[in-house]
User: Fold this.
Amino acid sequence: MEWAWLIPVFSFAVVPLIILFGKYLPGKGSPLAILAIIGGFVLFWVILFGFLNATPDTENCHIAEKTGALTCSYQRTWFDAGFPGTDNDVDKRVRLTWGIIIDPLAIAMLGLATFVALMVQIYSLSYMKGDARFDWYYAFHALFIAAMLTLVLADNFLLLYVAWELVGLCSYLLIGFWFERPTAREAAKKAFIVTRIGDVGLLIGILLLWREVGSFSMADAFVAAQSGAMSQGVATAAALLLFLGAMGKSAQFPFHVWLPDAMEGPTPVSALIHAATMVAAGVYLVARAFPLFAASGDALLVVAIIGLVTALGAATIALVSTDLKRILAYSTISHLGLMMLSLGAFGYTAALFHLLAHGFSKALLFLGAGSVMHATDELDIRKMGGLRKVMPLTAILFSIGALSLGGIPILAGFWSKDEILIAVNDHLHPAFIVLTLLTVLLSALYMARAMFVVFYGRFANAQEHAHESPPLMTITMALLGVLALFFGFMAFNWPGSYEGIGTFLFYDHPEGFHFVWWLGILSTVLAVAAFGYAYLAYVKRNDGLAGLKGRFAGLLRVVENKYYIDEAYQWSVDRVALTFSGFVAWLDRAVVNDVAVNGPANLVRRLGEVLKLHVTGHVYSYALAMALGLIGLAIFWWIQSV
Amino acid sequence: MSGLTDNLYLLTPEFALAGLAFLVFAVDLLLPEERKHLLGWLAVLGLLGLVVLSLLLLPGKEATLYGGLLAIDGYALFFKVLFLGIGVFIILSSIDYVKLHLTHPGEFYGLLLFSILGMNLMAQSRELLTAYISLELLSFSLYVMVAYALGNPKSNEGSLKYIIIGAFSSAILLYGISMVYSSLGVTRFEGISAALSSITDLRPALWVGLALIIVGLGFKLAAAPFHMWAPDVYEGAPLPVTAYLAIASKAAAFALLLRLLAEAFVPVGDRWDQWQIIVAALAALTMLLGNLVALAQRNLKRLMAYSSIGHVGYILAGAAALSPDSLLGANGIIFYLVGYSVTSIMVFAALIAFFNATGQEEIADLAGLADRQPLLAMAVAIGLFSLGGLPIFVGFTMKFYLFTAVANAGFLWLAGLAIFTSLISLYYYLQVIRQMYIQPALAAPLPGEEDNPDNEHSSAEHTHTPSHHLPHDDYEPLPRPPAALLAVVVLGLIATVALGVYPAPLLELVEAASAAILPGG
Amino acid sequence: MSNFDQSALLLIILAPLAGALLSVFLPRGRPNDAWYFAIFVSAITLILSLLLFARYDFSAGGYQFARTYEWLDAPLNIDLSLAMDGIAAPLVLLNGIVLFGAVLISQTIKHRTRDFFVLLLALGSGVFGVFVVQDLFFLFFFYELAVLPMYLLIGVWGSSTDFGSFVRTKEYGAMKLMLFLVAGSVLIWIGILALYVAAGQAGSPTFSLVTLGELSQSGHFGPDFQNWVFPLFMIGFGVLAGLWPFHTWSPDGHVAAPTGVSMLHAGVLMKLGAFGIIRVGMALLPEGAAAWMPVLIVLGTVNVIYGAISAMSQRDLKYIIGYSSVSHMGYVLMGIATLHPVGLTGAVLQMFSHGIMTALMFAMVGAIYERSHVRDITVLNGLMKRMGTTSFFFAIAGLASLGLPGLSGFVAEFMVFTGAFRTYLPLAVLAVIGAALTAVYILRLLARTFFGEADPQWEHLTDASPVEKTVGAAFVLILLFVGVWPAPLTRVINVSVESALGLF
Amino acid sequence: MSWFLFAILAVFTLGGGLGVVITRNVVHAALFLLVSLVAVAGVYLILFAEFLALVQVLIYGGAIIIVLLFAIMLTRTAEYPHISDNRQWPLAAVAAAGVGVVLGAAFWIKGVSQSAPHSPAFSELANSLFTRWAIPFEVASLVLLVALIGAIIIARAGEDNR
Amino acid sequence: MVPLVYFQLLSVALFIIGLYGVMARRSAVLIVMSIELMLNAVNINLIAAASHREGTGSFINFDGQIIAIFIITVAAAEVGLAMAIIMRMYRNRATVNVDEIDLMKW
Assistant:
């Protein structure tokens, strides 16, 4: 297991190789990247089994306090700052370390990341074929996956922050991959800056914890938080600050604005970064720091509320959006909101389970959308229809993903969502469960809408030239599809062999698999009803929908405009920020420089111009001056002498 | 009366100098007009000989001649060599100028030699009348030399103003002497100090008399408010004479003042402590006025005049820092005088060469000099940087030394003011350097640039153009300056840097000199 | 002690100076000769600085390579005593690197080339001097020597720019820079004299930092004295460090200065100020420092925020970088003002990292300006297409300056924050926010200038020359190296930080 | 008796002086100057400085006045008969008065208590002039020489400079 | 017997008259005359001091008279040179009025 650090290092290693020699390598270096990630994926299994066999008395392993999970961690010193010495002392020095932690959470994320990354990279081989910057694409990919793996393995906040920023960078680079497009350029900038705002919170939180604990180790921080060595207020503040970072990364309201725009990037990138892995990092962070959140109840409540608002709001927008990828993006936001909600409801296991399930399904959906794009160069669903005739495989796989996220039973999404509902129901105010169910309904509805409009119904003539995608793409999709289908069964308790995910991924105490019938049935009914209605509305084209739209026209406009949040941002940036900075710049030039600096200088020069007039050029006035000076000097001397 | 004229041989250099002057006059009669420049070389050789003679004859000699009228000591020797040296370089840099622009070369060099004699005696005299007469010898020569550009009304006007104010101030000086004499009965420096410290009921006449003497010397130093003649005279005088005024006559006046203060006032102790502030006040006024007004100058000579007034202010600050038990102040002053002389000679030599080639003397005329004659530009630039007090040049070291002395004597405020005013001075020095290096050659100064040298539109015509894309080839280069001037400039450069980087050897000599007049230190 | 250790410091000061003096005798009008010679000289200094840094024994710490040369004895007592400690070591290295880079980049100087390199080398020698002398006189001497050439370097080889609403001529930039810096040195000079006088009253008049340090520790400098003298140094050196509100010389100077000079100016010269505060202010006047640090850290924070906000709405590349330098020097000042070991270490590291980063930026901007004669980011666009390498290097530098982990900027800023969080929590929070602002203007710059479709008018632009590529690549590698493995620097800095803060 | 003489001489001295600075006619001014100088010589006499009185009359009354008159004739301008004062004369009067007050006060306060005036023997004077004061004497001769040369060069007509 | 002070006051009076003349007159020639008055004031002062033996008997010397001799000499030379310059001025500028002689100022 101590070799886990190799997983990211593989990918890090290939980055410079591809950048420097990519042009000369076969496949522009893409094989290198894929090899690296394959290595990572293999190593993941090694570590998984190593971990399953590990016991608290294996070296470097122990049962972590509070989380109660078996944890193994390995560390190397990075560098010391401050006075020479070894021990951390908040007033003398701080030792920074490369440290990895291996626990169920980390392993789960490893699995998700490596697998999806592998799929996506293979998929990209044919999707990105012939792109001018093919090599750069794979370099960025490798860099991203390396950073992502570091992020999940990090055992101290600083390393986590480092990786956190790097994934942000890669997302920036990949969103702006086609930087010639102004839209892509702006989207990338927006993504970076918006997430950066969250990161400020994260950094402040980390430094705040350091201030309290004296080291950046997560474990120390959690112990301090739980043992009360850290005051309740500080714990809450720190937790909320960390959550700020999580909100940025996981596109939680009000920082969700960047994610839809991020769809400007290549679709595989959207699948990997903006669906499966990076955006989940926020959820991962909250889960990772759960002891801290748990130590302050208020923080968790905030998490839940934000999560719910996000989930609901995003779902509604997804319902009316007309861009296939954006629909998926909003659904991602919505599901991330659900995960946050579940965490806020102590649904630790549920959240992570849903994270995985959603990861596979959403990756599948994006790749499907990608193959649609590949086939039609079109993203506006209004111009699509009946594609299943031309690309049946894609249609089936996409449908699987949609049904899974729509919460149709036995598919992965259903089970994970069910867990969340239970958690919400158990731990939170009744209002929450109602709204959550509404969200469930909506998510089913928009999934169904996307699915039916694109693949079923009348064939849109716009796409004669459309065709099924090449095997590399379909195969990878198929693999993901399998997971989307059956991953849900991981939740069950298979007596003898496997006790269910709840005994592996848990907080505080292992949880068996449980199922609340009325909730299950209710959610199923909602989902099925949603799909049914969608079928009628979009395939059979009965015009109940039009009437509905007419009735809620005003509301519709608000929703279609994404609640004007982007406009609000735009306004605040243009009107407030830029105006203010313009003012400061003017101040600096006109006041600080021209008045405060040039002023005195010119004053002195003018003084010279005036003073020089005393030399009149008339000899008698020189004599007069001497006489006056004489009087002054004589009197002065006299005074000084007596 | 025996004893008075013992070891009169110690005055050999002075007599020889007078002899040299007469020799020049004599040879002048023999030489044809076109060979007269040889007189200059004759004078140079003679002066160099005198330097050697003095260095062979005088070191280590301590004596006072004529019952305390003249001193033979390290101090006198140091300044003697300094003045002779200055004379050498001034003559070297004026030979061509004289040939080009002046008549009566023989008399010119002769008068110059007489004035050097006067300066030597000023540094040696320990008695008021002797000092006065020597000073008049210097002044008279200068009156004539200032007027030497006979056809030039400016030169004429300068000398008229100079002689009127000069006579006026010498009348004041003499009145001071008479008051001192009438209240103490002595005019010898140590006599004065002895009387000051011994006699109990001193008369106000004495204080006022001393004040009048300071006024008289203040005129010679061009210390504010007795400085107004300086700009006019400097501007009117022929360039070499301007240089001579700015360097030699100032150095001589300070040599006299320093000896007077050190031998007559400083030993008096507590009274001197009270008088220091007076000198400090003069210094402050002088450095402020000189540097501020210099900001507004367009004419090179006038600029140098005001800047020299500023430097006088610094040196006076050093004079205020004299103290019976420390040589720091005296060292600072002497070191500063040497450094100032070296730097200024270099600058003036370069300006003379420029004037010989172009006949121009406005700051704006220097435009593009860096391309037209790089060596001259470099000399002027380095000289001005040095005067502005920047390393690695002597200007920095000497200012640091002097201001340290001032601060150490308890006048930190004065040192601060001095440092601040040298910041101001840097501004106008940089304006000259800007003309030479930045302004393209032959570019007539733009309208409005005069009153605001770094204003916006001064280079609006080449916005967005890196300077090295500017056409810098449209200049006509200046002829290479003749050997004599070249020698002065190069030697000046070497000395400016050498003294700035390693002044220790010089400072040992300076220590010896100041120890001679401040035995207590 | 090997012979090298004996004389290395003197060598590293004299080498550029000697080079400058020798260059004077090179034939005029043969630009390349001057350039080659300057490369030769600066290469020597680079090697020397590398050797010095490598041979500095960080386990022993303290001042090393000490050597004293008699200069003036009583009554002034000035010696040229040289020594290098762990705070100076990285900066010496920095100067070696940046000087070399600046000389290489200055290949494009074709007019009065010889004079240019003479001045450039003189400047470099002055900077080396300040870092390694142990005597106030010489510290001031070299300080002024480093300032002096700037006027001509900017005035002669600089460029004037018309910003429509206002014009910045090179004369203006040069003059302002010169007067500002010398005005700062006025205060420093007064402070030095005050110290000398105080030492004299304590019985041993001297300018030696060592002796003065002993005097100050034996309590010869009273609190009142320290409280009025320290601000002289704080502001005097602060001017050079771009301390708000005495910063305006810096952006204007950059706008006017030629590339190589901008590199040295922002890369090294501004560091002299911060270094002076540590070396003179903190070491000799600890009580005064302790009393004034709250002021300094407030000003430093203002630097950070103010610089970033002003940079946001600038249109000229050099103005943006100039203001970002103001902002980044703010971190240095903050780090110093924390008086916290980690913070101070961060400050020194930030000096190094910012030196490299900003030098790289100016180098690349110079490359662009050379080709397009435009620095207006609203006019330039799509350069990534035309000048890929240049844009890439610039982007790396930009990312470093917005504190991206893995690049040196992050490590340094982060350490500064750490120290500040311990000592001045609210200001530290502000500073972190300021770091986010950096991202705004850097990304805006990248998006406007390098991304997007290129106008046809930029078709003709060629990518960086081999020389520029070399410099850029080298600097990028340094940024990466320090960002990934700062230990070689920090372990050197740490020891001297300990002795520097030992007084507090 | 000596009081009477002193008063007379003082009146002539100052009167002459005032005449010089007040009259509007330059030639008159020169004559007033002569009066004043001769009166000063008289003052020397009542101070028993006969030699000085002699020198005074010879050099001043003789040489200097003549030189002045020559100069006046050679530089005759139309306004010599009615030359006016410059604009700042009131200021000048004030300043002069100020100087007078200072100097007068300086002498008046703690004035010297003195005994009868006496005079050195003429021989002593000469002796010390040529022994003790030899150097100033020689320098003075040089001064005269310089003035002579200068006067010749400057005043010589014709050849102006190129 | 006239006390020394009265001679000194006399010299002061003459001195300031000369002083006034220098500051108030326009013609260079008159200014030179005024300077001569000042010098005579000096001489009176010196000679008076020289020829009064002081009660406290601190000095008997006639240096005063010697100084006076020198002053007279120098004064003569001064006048000569000044007149030469004035004539040159007259030849160049056709005036000797100092308020018209201000080519150079400021």
